[in-house]
# Entry
Amino acid sequence: MSSKATTTILIVEDQSLVRDAIAMLLSLEDDLTIIGKCSNGQEAIEYLDNNPAPHIILSDIEMPLVSGLDVAAHVTKQSLRTNVVLMTTFSKPGYIKRALSLGVKGFILKESDSDYLIDAIHKVSAGDKVISPELAIMALDDKNPLTQKEMSALKLASDGLKTRAIAEQLFLSEGTVRNYLSEAISKLEATNRVDAARIAKQKGWL
# Structure
């Protein structure tokens, strides 16, 4: 009689108590095996570069050094045969669009109960996609008003670049860059470019 197939999982979470609690919870399932625990995205990437890919990477989004979205981007770039499931909070619905563009298979709330998390892992393992209904609704209601050019200028501004440097990188005039930043500030009802970048990052648009 053949044994039941086991799904291997790599947990990536910067809060040790949460990381250990998730590992303990999932370990109670006969068909789930925790093969590694990482405290940030950089550790996860190093693990993936030096070990066989797990069936599932269960990762927080916001972490020191490297984010969960960066881990998902690494998986896509390296064409790794693994499924990424990201965890987030109510305040970050905008991340869902970026996550899906990176091929993420699961997007769930950290506030979800244990049964939902386990069910989500099983569904992703079976080839399905899972998105918490609350996040899906919030993402639809939380449309990004910024154009791609406004986001590009705002992203460079958030990195500390001045108007001239932004213009050089985007091959635009300084006046055009100022217009893009001004439009972004106005659309986000921000006080300045720093505040606009903060709001856009909170929404998951940068």
Summary: The mean pLDDT is 90. The chain has two domains: 7-140, 148-203. The first strand starts at residue 7 and ends at 12. The radius of gyration is 19 Å.
